[in-house]
Amino acid sequence: MTYSEELTELIEEFQEIDDKMERLEMVFDLADEVNLLPIDQWTDATRVNGCQSEAHVKVEIIDSNVRFYSGADSKLVQGLMGILTMAIDNGDANVVLTLTPDFATEMGILNSLSPSRSNGFRNMFDKVMNEIKTQM
Amino acid sequence: MTYSEELTELIEEFQEIDDKMERLEMVFDLADEVNLLPIDQWTDATRVNGCQSEAHVKVEIIDSNVRFYSGADSKLVQGLMGILTMAIDNGDANVVLTLTPDFATEMGILNSLSPSRSNGFRNMFDKVMNEIKTQM
Amino acid sequence: MREEFPILQREINGYPLVYFDNAATTQKPSVVIDAMNDYYSNSNANVHRAVHTLAGEATEGYESCRRELKSRFNATRAIITSGTTEAINLVAHAWGRANLVDGDAIILTEMEHHSDIVPWQMLAQEMNIELRYVPVQKDLTLDMELFEAAIKGAKLVCVVHISNVLGVCNPVERIVKIAKQNGAKVLLDAAQSAPHQDIDFGELGADFMAFSAHKMCGPTGIGALLVTDDAFNEMQPFMGGGDMIETVSIHGSTYQKNEQKFEAGTPRIAEAIGWTEALKWLNDVDIKSEHKRILDSARWLAKELRELGMTVYGRHDKNDAAVVSFLHPTMNSEDLAHLLDARGFAVRTGHHCAQPLLDRLEITGTVRVSLYFYNTHDEVVSFVDYFKEILERFA
Amino acid sequence: MREEFPILQREINGYPLVYFDNAATTQKPSVVIDAMNDYYSNSNANVHRAVHTLAGEATEGYESCRRELKSRFNATRAIITSGTTEAINLVAHAWGRANLVDGDAIILTEMEHHSDIVPWQMLAQEMNIELRYVPVQKDLTLDMELFEAAIKGAKLVCVVHISNVLGVCNPVERIVKIAKQNGAKVLLDAAQSAPHQDIDFGELGADFMAFSAHKMCGPTGIGALLVTDDAFNEMQPFMGGGDMIETVSIHGSTYQKNEQKFEAGTPRIAEAIGWTEALKWLNDVDIKSEHKRILDSARWLAKELRELGMTVYGRHDKNDAAVVSFLHPTMNSEDLAHLLDARGFAVRTGHHCAQPLLDRLEITGTVRVSLYFYNTHDEVVSFVDYFKEILERFA
Ligand SMILES: Cc1ncc(COP(=O)(O)O)c(C=O)c1O
Ligand SMILES: Cc1ncc(COP(=O)(O)O)c(C=O)c1O
After folding, report:
1. What is the CATH number of the domain that holds D304?
2. Is some CB atom of chain D closer than 8 A to the CB atom of C277?
3. Is any atom of ligand 1 closer than 6 Å to the C-beta of D375?
4. Hey, is the C-beta of C332 within 8 angstroms of any chain B C-beta?
5. Is D51 in contact with B116 (Cβ distance < 8 A)?
């Protein structure tokens, strides 16, 4: 599938890194990319299940434009949220809905993560997509 | 240790047989050697524990002479009783008490038997020896 | 298939092992043994709630067993237990104690294994529950008329799918239908049927199904309870401890919502990994035709034994297991088993943990030959030949 | 010793595995893996009550585990269970329900593992039993004054020998003495101590002792409950089924008199055989000096981590386990574990199934490094080196 320019760049950037530690460093850095969902807005409704740490997401759609807010107590998880932010935030909802978690596999981040973390990523992805669908 | 002539002969007879089946045939035949303890005299007191089948023994000592009565619903077990009969019946109690179950190992019967059966033999042997001791 | 089972190379007293004690436990193919070996040599770790690679592999291995169980038996809930016995005790404690009240009735059959009797006797005593036993008839089938009479007011029917003594397969579809019409739940003891049939738990409509890995080419120490969602939601926790909780404080605890609620403590990880391979191995077996093959051998064996003067207990109907239980008119059964063992034939004797059934048959035990897919007709023929020799020399 | 453990050859992400999650489960030496392999490849059969050779070998293998347990721990009764958790649940059901009455009190400590809390909470709810928790003090020890105050009128004391979070070894001799003076029984959770000490159960005077094979180089799916004869005689059956009965009829059943009374169903045969080898293997280890060696490494690690600004929870006294629980002032523990895993270091994070203890410490989890006899000081040094790198790059 075809990705936005920003996402394509990010995927390439990740693919260029061989060292797992460096890749993790990049994920950590991307934690700053989220639109932060403040802790006082974390609720059962925003919680991503199946994560070992607290991870919360919220979606707003304004004129079919996706706004993605998120936050986690794990910086690694929030880094994954940062990646998802770059992939979908400000995108057109209809385009966003065509996205699959494959892009994360292509980046090589999923197999840099433990199964529990990559399951966590999938759960987050599914939750966000479902929210978008329900709101449309 | 030294065995009675009868027992020595029996041990030698067994040692001469290579074939397990023949050895079992001989054990079966020896079931007739017991002084039969009739079923109506089988009680909890006569029961040998740890046998899979019903096995019962009784000892009488008259003038320090051992009389050994026994019976089982398994012919194989009763055959083992027959062997014990040949080993101790009519013997002097003091001499009988020096006997150990080693003679059965020497005969090669214990390793022709399943562990449960050879345990059964040991239990029977111990019970009989204990009875002799208590009665003396 | 035989070369996949290392133990079949074994010799006993210089003779090739002929393993005819499959209703007690089956042998394991290399894939099962190797998977456990590999787990202990490469991936061993405790499961759940850990980040490191080995823990991830162990968790994935453990949970793959649950997935494989659900898919093989078409179930939505698979609780992993230590075996059939624990699975049935789990129903008694987790469902029975929470949902039955003083004066309720449970239906059992006279054909049940002790593991499907004693837990209910214990519960009956504790809670004043009535136990109604469906009798076994002369033709070795359940008296369905008396079952229909007994079902009125019963809350639970516990029935063995295939008898481990007789091989008789009970009409469970009919039993489930009648139970459902009367609002009773059904617990199926599938210890002997899960190895021999492709069972569709969802389609069958029973509420609980218990079985053991070791009787279907899997390891010892593990089994399962399949449960419908409805029945699952009625179950209260049984054993307490790690893994089954959500939160614990000194004021009280909350529990997991999924199957882990009933899997307290470190689970049977290597065993689950071994069982997964056994389930996959079974998926690749053409069970229908293999079953027919060994059942035919069992029928032939039953006929031969009858001709030799043995009393055979079994009918060997289409869905019955390839089990031949018999008695010699005078020879002691353990003696027979002993003589058989001398030439490498492994059979079981005794009450087979089904004393009420034997009481009904007015016997105290049988000699039992039970076949599985790796047995051959040649083995059965050699059994009969040697059996004749025994009769000549020892009877 | 390391070459006896096949898994220590494993690489994770191209780096050698450094396995520091031993309090969760230990690795297995080849003798253990091979014994199970051999059992499945050569002797697999169901145990008890069978005549054939394989059944005899399997029974002997299974019972050898009981003998080995009794001899290693100097006990007269060893009941084989699926693990510590089932062993404790067994005490709650088999002893607790039969011997406690409405209004009785049980003493627990805030240091207990969930497996030694939840079964008692469930029993307390069912029978209206009072649970009294002995608090953990600032110095991470039990408040023995409050224990002595709480003991009055209590029927049972449940105490963890060594904390799986802190490594702290509790003064069990004193606890047993005080309990006995007050007529209370003592259940020792020895899940963490059995692997690290030579325990003399007979000498110690506790009534029950629960532990798991998998934490002491044995297989998953098996554990034991040691019981004194007196306490054994007070226990009623827990789970019902095959192997635990003497006779069954539709009118009722009688039970075995020995340990089998509490081992319903086909037991954990391969697991028992594997555990026997692990127990023998441990008999050959010089536990005292090995313990001192890894405890010294743990002390050094604790010091280094403190110097790096970590909060370390533990005191590392002479008999404490070589466990180092710590927290980074800001970094998320799972993230740390994740970064450690990237270079092959396996540590555990989370509540370690001891939430009440963490509540007392006012934290929700720790990063836990737990060492065992096959760990080397070099591994600990490389851990610290890499940990510094993590702090530089990620903190
Ligand atoms: C102190 C303590 N008690 C009990 C347990 C429970 O052991 P298992 O999960 O093997 O039943 C553990 C280990 O998880 C433990 O560390
Ligand atoms: C019909 C039936 N039910 C229950 C059981 C008990 O199974 P397990 O001993 O594996 O718990 C068996 C096997 O022994 C069986 O044949």
Report:
1. 3.90.1150.10
2. no
3. no
4. yes
5. yes
Q: What is the CATH classification number for the domain harbouring A126?
A: 3.90.1010.10
Q: Does residue C158 have an active-site annotation?
A: no
Quick one: how far is CA C206 from the chain centroid?
Answer: 16
Domain span at B26: 5-135
In Å, how far is A26's CA from the nearest CA of chain C? 19
* SS3 at position D323: strand
Q: What is the extent of the structural domain holding D119?
A: 31-283
Domain co-membership, D352 together with D234: no
Share above pLDDT 90 across residues of chain C, in percent, rounded to a whole number: 95
Chains D and B touch (3+ CB pairs under 8 A): yes
Tokens of C359: 């009481």
Please indicate whether, in this complex, the C-beta atoms of C51 and A52 are within 8 angstroms of each other: yes
Residue D126 makes CB contacts below 8 A (sequence gap 6+) with D97
Q: Please choose from C49, C245, C266, C268 the residue to mutate so as to test ligand 1's pocket, defined by most ligand atoms within 8 A of CB.
A: C266
* CA D221 – ligand 1 centroid, Å: 12
The reported pTM is 0.94
Residue C129 shares a structural domain with residue C218 = yes
Let me know whether D304 and D212 are in one domain. Answer: no
User: Helix (H, G, I), strand (E, B), or coil: what is residue B101?
Assistant: coil
* DSSP-derived pairing of the beta strands C105-109 and C130-134: parallel
Taking the CA atoms of chain B, what radius of gyration do you get in angstroms?
14
Give ipTM to 2 decimals: 0.92
Which residues from chain A sit within 8 angstroms of residue D340, using beta carbons?
none
Radius of gyration of chain C (CA): 22
Contact D350 A76 (CB under 8 A): no
Tell me the CA distances in angstroms from A123 to C134, C286, C357, one per residue in order: 50, 38, 52
Report the domain count for chain B: 1
Q: Are strands D245-249 and D252-255 parallel, antiparallel or unpaired?
A: antiparallel
The domain that holds C78 is classified in CATH as 3.40.640.10
* Domain annotation covers residue C154: yes
pLDDT tens for D365-385 read: 999 999 999 999 999 999 999
H or E element in which residue C118 lies: helix C118-127
Number of folded domains in chain D? 2
SS3 per residue for B75-100: HHHHHHHHHHHHHHCCCEHHHHCCCC
Boundary-marking domain end, from C235, C265, C283: C283
**What number of helices (H) and strands (E) belong to chain A?**
6, 3
End-of-domain residue from the set D258, D283, D308? D283
Confidence of residue B1 (pLDDT cuts 50, 70, 90): low
Please calculate the CA angle B35-B40-B42 and round it to the nearest 5 degrees: 70
Q: Please indicate whether residue C159, judged by its CB atom, sits closer than 6 Å to ligand 2.
A: no
Distance D191 CA to ligand 1 centre (A): 5
Query: D191-217: per-residue pLDDT in tens?
Result: 999 999 999 999 999 999 999 999 999
Residues D304 and D330 occupy one common structural domain: yes
Residues C15, C108, single domain; the answer is no
CA distance linking residue D6 with residue D380, whole number of Å: 20
pLDDT of residue A6: 83
Shared domain check, C222 and C120: yes
Identify whether residues C308 and C195 lie together within a single domain: no
- B–A touching, 3+ CB–CB pairs within 8 Å: no
- State how far the Cα of D163 lies from the Cα of D23, in Å rounded to an integer: 10
Beta strands in C161-272 (DSSP E): 185-189, 208-212, 223-227, 245-249, 252-255
User: Would C25 be classed as within a structural domain?
Assistant: no
Q: Would you state the structure tokens that stand for residue A86, as one six-digit string?
A: 């770059």
Are residues C223 and C291 located together in one domain of the fold?
no
The SS3 of residue C264 is coil
pLDDT at A112 > cutoff 90: no
CA distances (Å), origin B69, targets B53, B72, B101, D299? 17, 11, 18, 70
